[in-house]
Amino acid sequence: MEEQIFTPQALARNIFDVKKIYFKLQKRNGCRNGNDLMEKLHAHLTSRMPGTEVRIDEAVKENNYYEGMQFKIVIEVNGQSLEIADEGFVDWTQQLLGNKKERMLIAGFGLELLQKLQSGAA
């Protein structure tokens, strides 16, 4: 799971030279031990990524896509905040296999947008 979280951040910083970047953690439906889990995850990510801000987003937004937890990577470019990566747990494999123990973490990352921002085309 860490690689899926750390890789987009490393790409944004090291390849695309993004200076301002932070993580948002968001609780979603089915989050067990919500506040305790969020605090532990926040502490873990903060310790593993010195110099990168990790925020817990308390805003409750309707979301039927992710289960339990959602992660977002936000970059700031020209004074504008852009959500560049979105990750979270889904229940597709649980439904497909009929097994509640199955877990799947998916991620999307806007590499094309980063490339356009870098070249000035966006």
Q: Describe it for me?
A:
It is built from four helices and five strands, in the order αβαβββαβα. With 122 residues, the chain is α+β, with helices and mostly antiparallel strands. A five-stranded mixed sheet has the order 2-1-3-4-5. The longest helix is centred in the middle third of the chain and has 15 residues, at 34-48. The mean pLDDT is 84.
> CATH fold name, please?
BirA Bifunctional Protein, domain 2
Large-scale geometry? globular
Rg to the nearest angstrom? 15 Å
User: What would the average pLDDT be, to the nearest integer?
Assistant: 84
- CATH superfamily, by name, is Bira Bifunctional Protein, Domain 2
Strand order of the largest sheet: 2-1-3-4-5
Strand residue percentage? 25-35%
Helix count, DSSP H or I runs of 4 or more residues: 4
Distance between the terminal alpha carbons, to the nearest Å?
31 Å
Q: Strand count, sense and closure of the main sheet?
A: 5 strands, mixed
User: Which regions contain 5 or more consecutive residues with pLDDT less than 50?
Assistant: none
